Amino acid sequence: MRRAHGLVRGSLGPLVAGVLLAGCGAPSSPVTRSGESTTPPPPTSTVAAGDLATQKAAAGIADCPASDATVPADPKGLPDITLPCLGGGKEVRLAGLRGTPMVINVWAQWCPPCRQEAPHLTEASQQFGDRVLFLGIDIADPLPDRAIAFADEAGWTYPQVADEDSRVKAPFQLTGPPMTLLVTADGTIAYRHSGMITSTEQLQQLIEQHLGVD
Questions:
Q1: DSSP per residue over the chain, as a string?
Q2: Per-residue pLDDT, 14
Q3: Tens digit of each residue's pLDDT (9 = 90 or more) over 95-135
Q4: What domains are there in the chain, each with its CATH number?
Q5: What is the pLDDT of residue 48?
Q6: Which pTM was predicted?
């Protein structure tokens, strides 16, 4: 957990509280951990797929979960969108994720509030274990190597998918990361939380309230 808490300290800086709570906009002006603007990232990564797989394995990030390719999409559930597994592995059809309550977190390595909330996700995922499936969606990010490095630093060992083209933005009603969705075992979206999770206790309470898992 020292890595996650260190990440929080590193991301503090001249950030405005309202911006943290509201979330990030598009990555047209990425931000460093100190809150200073940087130049936009290049349009594509130059890191080889094999190197990304090695980086992912070294970070201990789990393989992406199996998803049903045939189950009908639930109009009250996750969209019928298939996303690649971050760092390599099987693709994930979001609408086909069934059988386990889920916490789905939309994030990006260029997003300061995502860095702020990272340790709370780490702690909650460890506390709930196999009773809740945690899944990250790295959005609008053309640099998977940096995304994996961030997940590693945060201590996230749960699976991650990539949404470079922001395909979930419209169906999730997403203005910008972070966003956390709670999804029941039958695939229904029970709750959307726009903006930053501010404590592990807050996330625990949301999971207990909306997913019935304590």
A1: -HHHHHHHHHH-SS--HHHHHH----TTS-B-TTS-B-PPPPSS--S-HHHHHHHHHHHTPPPPPP--SSSPPPTTB--S-EEPBTTSS--EEGGG--SS-EEEEEE-TT-HHHHHHHHHHHHHHHHHGGGSEEEEEEES-S-HHHHHHHHHHHT--S-EEEETT-TTTTTTT-SSS-EEEEE-TTSBEEEEEES----HHHHHHHHHHHH---
A2: 38
A3: 999 999 999 999 999 999 999 999 999 999 999 999 999 99
A4: 2-38+62-211 (3.40.30.10)
A5: 79
A6: 0.81
